[in-house]
Amino acid sequence: MDKIIEIRHLRKSFGSNEVLKDINFSVSKGEVVCIIGASGSGKSTLLRCLNLLEYPTSGEILYHGQNILEHDMTNASYRTKLGMVFQQFNLFSNLTVLQNCVVGQVKVLKKDKASAEKTAMQYLEQVGMSQFINAKPNQISGGQKQRVAIARALSMEPEALLFDEPTSALDPELVGEVLKVMKSLARSGLTMLVVTHEMGFARDVSNRVVFMDAGVIVEDDVPEVIFNNPSNERTREFLKRVLED
Amino acid sequence: MTADSSSLAWIIYFIEEYGSLFLYGAGVTLLISLSGTVIGFVIGLIIGVIRTIPMDHNTGAITRVSYKLLNFLLLCYIEIFRGTPMMVQAMVVFYGAAIMFGIHMSALWAGIFIVSINTGAYMAEIVRGGIISVDRGQFEAAHSIGMTHWQTMTNIVLPQAVRNILPATSNEFVINIKDTSVLSVISVSELFFMGKSAAGTNYRFFEVFFIICVIYFIMTFTVTRILRLIEIKIDGPSVFTIHGSQTVPEAEFRIVNRE
């Protein structure tokens, strides 16, 4: 399979605190990979290392075989290849919904405004937010913000989309609308890497589930195995804990 | 007019006799404080942006050292001009330029220069505060779609920072309108200087400075109102229009702000 990203021996420390310990992991085209694990296990840090929002302490990040950390390409141009959806949405609060999806295309990809708006509208329609293009982020709900954030990331037409706990900051009744969009994206064949606490989504939608604990990848397998027959005791304990409530 | 004429009579007399002079002084005050605030804002913006450039693992040693040096010089500028009275700066710059460098500035240009660099020193820290108060997530989101630091600043961060520091900027403007009065020490013919001349000639201090006081207040109050209007304009409408409708495509709904 065509590996978009491969991580080798990745380590990340904050001061003396080693958050990621020798991570080896890859994402291939069309895969939907969920990363699960307890808070503080390093899931988000791993995702943030992937698009260099955190700079790894050591190791390699290969993008189609090119080592990103050796400056084969600039950080900025590498980041356009990976979309990112944040827990706190992080919509640009000075821009409208449409401008949020256009600004990157125009400024970074150097597309002209008309075609950028066309692309943006197409993705805003896909997430069901095309009616709200004139709204400012503080005028729409959390679920709507997250859907716009997804459209913003898609507008850059990245090779893969990274989701950092996309539903954790949402009111429970708004989680569904975001998950629905994510499910339809997964079905459309988009490569997705999702850090999530939504076990239902991980079990039903993903091709692979990665379980992390204390900075290491404990288990990396298809969801059927992880959820029904995990080989590691820590995985079993974690799932028992989260699936109980 | 005699010494025992009523204060009211004196006030009317001064308005009639010196009104145009006072207005000229008010004009000079406005000119100096407006240009000082605008230039100072630009200086502050440039310094604030420079002082928030992130140094990361990619930064070479030479860049790092020269940046540190530049930062140190900027800090010296900020500390010196914030830490000494503008009245004293006016003396030092106006007479210093003439004696040390043979530059004979007109009092007006010296005034604009001093107010600008003084405001710049304050604005530099205000702008820096405005930039670092923008949520980290805004930077991260901009970086995640591939924006460089410069693109992030110009498109995302500065528009938000400038909006947030507008109240502080209008504060600076008001302070400048009042503080240009200290420029009378280098004989800038601004409002206070005009008042002092009129009062001194007639030995009527209360009446003259009462008029001067009213003029200052009208200027500051007008300026704060105008800047408030600019803030509201920048914030945009509190409602937005729904784009299209499935049944009636040309229909436009207006949705009232949620917050």
Which helices and strands appear, and what pairs or packs with what?
The complex is a heterodimer of chains A (245) and B (259).
Chain A: E1 3-14, E2 17-28, E3 32-37, H1 43-50, E4 58-63, E5 66-67, H2 75-79, E6 82-85, H3 97-107, H4 113-126, H5 142-155, E7 160-164, H6 172-187, E8 191-195, H7 199-205, E9 208-213, E10 216-221, H8 223-228, H9 233-244
Parallel strand pairs in A: 3-8, 3-9, 6-7, 7-8
Antiparallel strand pairs in A: 1-2, 1-4, 4-5, 9-10
Helix pairs in contact in A: 3-4, 3-5, 4-5, 5-6
Chain B: H1 7-51, H2 61-83, H3 86-101, H4 107-132, H5 136-144, H6 149-179, H7 191-202, H8 205-235, E1 239-241, E2 254-256
Antiparallel strand pairs in B: 1-2
Helix pairs in contact in B: 1-4, 1-6, 1-7, 1-8, 2-4, 3-4, 4-6, 5-6, 6-8, 7-8
Order of helices and strands of chain A: EEEHEEHEHHHEHEHEEHH
- Greatest interface and its residue counts? A-B, 43 and 32 residues
Can you write the helix and strand succession of chain B as a string?
A: HHHHHHHHEE
Distance between the termini of chain A: 37 Å
Quaternary structure type? heterodimer
Kindly name the structural category of chain B: mainly alpha
Kindly state the mean pLDDT of chain A as a whole number? 92
Structural class by sheet pairing and helices of chain A? alpha/beta
- Terminal Cα separation of chain B, in Å? 61 Å
Mean pLDDT of chain B: 90
CATH architecture of chain B: Orthogonal Bundle
Task: Give the biggest sheet of chain B.
Answer: 2 strands, antiparallel
Give the helix tally of chain B.
Answer: 8
- What fraction, in percent, of the residue positions of chain B are helical? over 70%
- Number of DSSP strand runs of chain A: 10
Enumerate how many helices of chain A there are, as a single number.
9
CATH class of chain B: Mainly Alpha
